[in-house]
Known about the structure:
Elements: H1 10-19, E1 33-37, H2 47-54, H3 57-65, E2 69-73, H4 77-85, E3 91-94, H5 96-105, E4 110-116, E5 121-122, E6 124-129, E7 144-146, H6 153-165, H7 170-173, E8 176-178, H8 183-191, E9 197-201, H9 202-211, H10 213-216, E10 219-224, E11 228-229, E12 231-235, H11 242-253, H12 259-267, E13 272-274, H13 280-290, H14 340-345, H15 353-362
Parallel strand pairs: 1-2, 1-3, 7-8, 7-9
Antiparallel strand pairs: 3-12, 4-12, 4-13, 5-11, 6-9, 6-10
Helix pairs in contact: 1-12, 5-13
Amino acid sequence: MYRSKHIPGALILGLIGMLATANAQAEEPTKPIKIGLVKTLFRDTSPRMAMVVLKPFSSIMYSMTGVHGELTIGGEAGELAKQLADNEVQLAIFHGVEYAWVQQKYPQLKPLMVAVNWTPHLRAHIVVSAASEFQTFADLQDQIIAMPRGTREHCRMFLDRLCQQQGKTPKQFFDRITKSFCVEDALDDVVDDVVQAAVVDDVAFESYREQKRVRASRLKKIATSEIFPAGVVVYNPAILNDELLAKFRQGMLKARDHVLGKRMLMLWNLTGFEDIPTDYQATLTNIARIYPAPASLAPAKPATNVKLVDQKKPANVIPVPTQTQAEIKVVKDKKPSPTAGKEQDKAIVKPSDDAKITNQNRE
């Protein structure tokens, strides 16, 4: 298992391997559905190699599922999600953590099935030599860590987060990050002190322990990740009808029953496609809390409710009496005179009519 070459990513290669059990020369309908693949599935693969692997998919998929499909690389998670929402692709494949982000912004996009390697619950480990003095991740600063080719996204994200907690990027934190050919090579290098640590998937580490018990006993885990959700095939209910979805899904789920399909799935470190687990949404919610979505996929913040100021007078406020316009007249447009300064010192309140009458009586 370890020495197989991870070409475009375990999820899509498992998909292709599964469909390879059928006859590639079968008759195909003229209008294929487009299946978008998130760009992060191809981290260790050149675009040219990815296209070589994806090219025969259409006829293979139709033979296996009765549905004619065409694979396309859909960009980052946010870009692919928008394509699915806009019907530019009809199905999409994401890493589980990416779908946890996607559904926050596009709640209408639903999971169809998951791609698993024995378990839908993924974990990552930081492994060091049992004889070393390393006790915590912080002890690995300025050391060398191995990252096997084909390392899955949850392992990469876990390593990034550990480094962020130290205030650095992985390149800043470690002296060097080596690209081991496979998990087995990475763990062997830790045992032989070629490197001081390795970041590996939980299932791969357990397989190493079963195959190399003595060497595995010389290793220890100093950090373990949270549970990550498995990779997932996502659809838009507004695009594909239930009959077509059911046909596609059933073809996928039966792959493990075919001898060649099973071998290909094992080659790419997958055991098959499965129904959505009952705790899948809870896992998605938890991982999105720990690993927040990037800005492009962050859910829109609700508008702040601004309370309008009540213009009515409070009932308990006693109004202050004011003078009438007849009582107060501001002197305007008055020509300046030598006594202007003195006049300005005098009151500008003009007597009311009642006051005039009183004054005349006194005279």
